[in-house]
Amino acid sequence: MFKRLITLSLSLVMASGLLAGCSGSSGGKEPSTAAPQEGENNGGKVTLKVAFFQGGYGDAWFKWLKEEFEKENQNVTVELEGNPKMNDIIQPRIEANTNVPDVVFVDDSLMRKWGPAGKLVDLTDMYNEKLPDGKTIEEKITDSTDKSMDVFGKKYGVPLAQLSQGIIYNVKMFEDNGWNFPSTWEELEQLAEQIKAKGIAPLIYPGQYPYYLFPFGHASYLQYGGPEFIEKLTNPTEADIPGLYEDPAFKRTFTLLDQMFKDKWMLDGTLALNHTESQMEFLRGKAAMILNGAWLENEMKDSIPEGFQMKMMPFPPAKDAVVHEPVLESLTSGFGGIPSVSNNIETAKKFLQFSSTEEANRRFTELTGSSRAFTYSVEGLNISDFTKSAIEATNKYKTVALIYAPQAITDSPGIDAYAAIAARSKTVEEVIQANVKAAPNKWKENQKLINTK
């Protein structure tokens, strides 16, 4: 799941930059002033079509939304259309204005593509409207998610979920061996040696997908570069290029990553494993910890051994950290939006507002084992200890999410850098110099893309 999420998050800014230049002459079809009023052709009845990506979150929450929304809106019938390939299926339909639903819940990268192109309703004002529970979306949304919903100063959707990624550890293994999760990197180094002495690998991750190393790297950028470095990385000026990629925060991050592999923290054979294979090895006790996200339990629910307990924690800082705090990465996953050709826009807005209430957020967590991108209480919910730990960690510790401005070079340093260090094919210095050398041309190419009319 994280593979898809990261791939899209790194490409979406380039797509939005391209569209920024042509948003004034959009091919998107705006609703006609002569369009029928909602329900006027059906005796006051409204059929609201809702299409959604049916992935790791399943469809139980959407079925609940349908049932509860229909109870409160007797004139509305909600038709659900869920599909594991909805992100691909919906794109030609939206772009051709053919068989378009009234509400879509798909990858948030598509919001950045469709919004500036006129394909989605601008929901900026809706963020400050009262929800049925008396609060506003603006009051409830988390800070990092609020920024991720911002597209050139407008908001074309509401967030679906918030995914936290950090270190997940085997609780029983830790308890049986008297290990405590470390609060500093130096303590983590000591713990890794104790784990290895037991014949167990300290760590594992889906080695086929270097993206799973990003949460460590992004947390480290904040810890060793501070907020100022994060701002410069995600919102650079031309003067920052190429020197930005020689910043000490990169060297410290890549040095720590290099040390993990050099000191054999990873289970042998990790680089050949995909996400489910690496997660199975963790569940079998072959590794004490795994670099992964809040979706792990739901994704592996049919394979978790009876009595197995796991808990999510942040990445601890080394003593030389600028931000000497544990850090988690927390990303937005998906959005709910309204296609601009819908004839049921007001009902669709009510549906999105209802989906953002405290009750709907709590039910989402209970039914999916994941967190919405809002602040809300999980007290009394029938959820697992792991889900509680993920939500508690997100609320307790500092979080980071790299939200790139259109001009930023989002792939430098990127997957290649992490993959090269993991595979031992390049040194830390070689990775840094490769990015420094490539940065000027990447910057120029990116500006050409942004300015394309």
Automatic annotation (TrEMBL):
Source organism superkingdom: Bacteria
Gene3D superfamilies assigned: Periplasmic binding protein-like II
Signal peptide: 1-20
InterPro entries: Bact_solute-bd_prot1 (IPR050490), SBP (IPR006059), SBP_1_CS (IPR006061)
GO biological process, one term: transmembrane transport
Keyword tags: Cell membrane, Lipoprotein, Membrane, Palmitate, Signal, Transport
PANTHER family in the cross-refs: ARABINOSE-BINDING PROTEIN-RELATED, POLYGALACTURONAN_RHAMNOGALACTURONAN-BINDING PROTEIN YTCQ
Family: Belongs to the bacterial solute-binding protein 1 family.
Stated name of the protein: Carbohydrate ABC transporter, N-acetylglucosamine/diacetylchitobiose-binding protein
